Amino acid sequence: MRSLPLPLALTARLTPVVVLACAGWAMSSGPPTETRDTAAEDTRTTQSEKASEPSTTAVSKTYGAAPAPCASVAAKTVSALVPGAKTAGKEIPSTDTSLRRTCSWNALKGYDYRWLDISFEIADSDDAARSSYQERVKEKSGGGTVPGLGSAAYSVVNLTTQDKQQTREGVVIAQVSNALVVVNYNGSDFESKKAPGTDEINKGAIKAAKEAVAALQSGRKS
User: Fold this and answer.
1) Could you tell me which residues come within 8 angstroms of residue 182 by beta carbon, excluding any fewer than 6 positions away?
2) What is the pLDDT of residue 17?
3) What DSSP character marks residue 40?
4) Three-class SS of residue 171?
5) Are the C-beta atoms of residues 170 and 205 closer than 8 Å to each other?
6) Which residues in the chain land under pLDDT 50?
7) Contact of 64 with 194, CB cutoff 8 Å
8) Which of 186, 188, 187, 185 lies closest to 210 in space, CA to CA?
9) β-pairing, 112-122 with 144-145?
10) How many CB atoms lie within 10 A of CB 132?
């Protein structure tokens, strides 16, 4: 075989070197050997951003606002429990009427004095209302449950004496979903300085509580 001229032979020998050199340059100047999965990174970033965003899911509540307390019991009930009182009652000022409203009736007829308060309190959830109910029940000993009233209900009657004057007070606390209904009913006789009987006060407080719970349940819900 005839030898190639020197320039061609040299070119033939140098060609692989040039090719390898070009390949080496391309490898050294190209992207790093570890390939980045940008799609996966974008997905992770999006998921991280979503996780850091505050939740906008609202807790479902049965009752969104407290009802009008002065309309929660019948006029004849007010007349029976608080003789001589104005049946319209008087609503007590509240810092937030959507969360708490209270109506009060009181009167002195002869020497007999009676006082009735009905309050509605709206909690953020059933659990919050239940927790508040349980705490209040713990604070008042000696009472008992009231069956068939709301989700749970408790009644207690206590006697206090000040300057020989007795006053008997009945309290009923009822939890109805995320709402609390609280009734205070008390009485005194300023002539005998005796208080009305336990049964009278207890039954009166429970009667008012049942009407108040019924008014709450039949009212507008959120």
Assistant:
1) 117, 118, 119, 121, 136, 171, 172, 173, 174
2) 40
3) H
4) strand
5) yes
6) 1-35, 39-40, 43, 50-57, 220-222
7) no
8) 185
9) unpaired
10) 15
In a domain, 209, yes or no: yes
Q: Coil, helix or strand for 168?
A: strand
In this structure, is residue 31 part of a structural domain?
no
Domains identified in the chain, total number: 1
* Residue 61 within a domain: no
Q: What six digits make up the tokens of 67?
A: 């009802």
Considering the domain boundaries, does residue 161 fall inside one? yes
- Which pLDDT belongs to residue 69? 97
φ, ψ of residue 27 to 5 degrees: the values are -70, -40
What is the C-alpha separation between 215 and 119, in angstroms, rounded? 12
CA distance 90 to 36: 73
Look at the alpha carbons of 118, 72, 170, 64 in this order and tell me if their dihedral is positive or negative.
negative
Show the domain range for 91. Answer: 69-218
What is the edge-to-edge ordering of all strands in the sheet holding 100-109? 90-92, 100-109, 112-122, 179-189, 165-176, 152-162, 144-145
Among 101, 100, 95, CA closest to 71 = 101
170 vs 116: CA distance, rounded Å: 10
Q: What is the pLDDT of residue 171?
A: 98
Q: What is the residue whose two structure tokens read 């049946």?
A: 87
Write down the residue that tokens 């909690």 correspond to: 123
> What stretch of H or E contains 167?
strand 165-176
CATH number (domain holding residue 86)? 3.40.1000
Contact 179, 152 (CB under 8 A): no
pLDDT score recorded for residue 219: 79
